[in-house]
Design brief:
Layout lengths: L1 H11 L8 E5 L6 H10 L8 E2 L5 H9 L3 E4 L7 H12 L1 E6 L7 E6 L2 E6 L7 H4 L2 E5 L11 H29 L12 H14 L3 H18 L2 H12 L2 E4 L1 H8 L13 H17 L2 E4 L11 E5 L3
Parallel strand pairs: 1-6, 1-7, 2-3, 3-6
Antiparallel strand pairs: 4-5, 8-10, 9-10
């Protein structure tokens, strides 16, 4: 996954478009925290490059607004509000609060950030966030190859000029190639996809292929961690075509004995869950159609297995 990390670093120097979130994953002892710290230092040096998991939306906004690169270290899970906040930090987030010691003045924090997450297991991953991730896998470091952090800092300080020079040379080549890049299909992270194609052109690499291959992997993780999504997949394995309202789908899928945690409670919740699961279901071969028009019974949803 190194080509994807390089592409993400190059994109971090280009602030005027949405950047995917880089997820550094791996077992304990694979150097995720030090890797995040080093990557942040290459484009936004800071005395506090790693942040702990924020306690609420305001805490996140304040901590993220103060720097261009933000690394949330050692996440054990992602709550719904943090998942939404991370998605908005990709496309452009904002927090509006009443200014202290005033009656009507507003304090506005508006930002778009380059975000890194480190985690062994994020637990339940929502589809809209999964669609904005780039995965980088770190291998465990054996005891014979492990180094003291002070030694790593010294090596990095010695090599930083050459690293930055090589990175900026690559950036210049990518910038020269970008105007000629045309995508056959536009994905959600289309600007980043153009950087991937330009990088492959100048390096002869395979970053775009790796990125596209990750979509199925992320989709699988999203569905594995979502009981309602897995129920839809099981339904479509038995019935390649299904049609009905959100309430009908809820009645079709809800178990009679034990309802899993996080199960939608009504048709409106089903519609919201379906929209978040759209990319993951599509990657798994299930197409979801939710019409704009309403019938007397409500919006009639269509689920189709690819090829039907």
């Amino acid at each position: 996954t190194w080509p994807l990390v390089l592409a993400w670093l190059v994109a971090a120097y280009l602030p005027d478009f949405p950047h995917p979130i880089l997820l550094l994953g791996g077992l304990q002892g694979s150097g995720k925290s030090i890797a995040a710290r080093v990557l942040i230092s290459l484009f936004d040096p800071s005395h506090a490059p790693l942040r702990s998991q924020p306690r609420d939306e305001e805490h996140w906004a304040v901590s993220a607004a103060g720097s261009w690169g933000v690394a949330l270290d050692n996440l054990s899970g992602i709550s719904s509000w943090l998942s939404d906040s991370l998605c908005r930090s990709v496309t452009g987030d904002g927090l509006v609060r009443r200014a202290l010691f005033t009656d009507s003045d507003l304090a506005v924090l508006s930002f778009r950030r380059a975000v890194i997450l480190t985690s062994i297991d994020l637990g339940m991953l929502r589809g809209d966030l999964g669609d904005r991730l780039v995965l980088a896998d770190l291998e465990p470091i054996s005891d014979t190859h492990r180094r003291a952090e002070a030694d790593l800092d010294r090596i990095l300080a010695e090599k930083r000029p050459r690293i930055l020079g090589a990175l900026l040379d690559t950036l210049a080549a990518v910038l020269g190639r970008l105007p000629a890049v045309q995508l056959k299909a536009i994905s959600r992270m289309a600007d980043f996809a153009r950087v991937l194609v330009a990088l492959d052109d100048v390096t002869g690499g395979v970053a775009m292929g790796l990125y596209m291959a990750q979509r199925d992997r992320v989709a699988g993780h999203v569905l594995d961690s979502d009981s309602f999504g897995m129920a839809i997949v099981s339904l479509m394995e038995k019935h390649p075509f299904w049609r009905g309202t959100a309430g009908d789908l809820l009645g079709e899928l809800t178990p009679t004995e034990h309802t899993p945690r996080g199960w939608p409670k009504n048709g409106q919740a089903v519609s919201g869950r379906l929209r978040r699961l759209l990319p993951a279901l599509e990657a798994h071969g299930v197409t979801v159609y939710i019409p704009r028009e309403r019938t007397r019974r409500g919006r009639v949803i269509e689920l189709t297995t690819r090829g039907v």
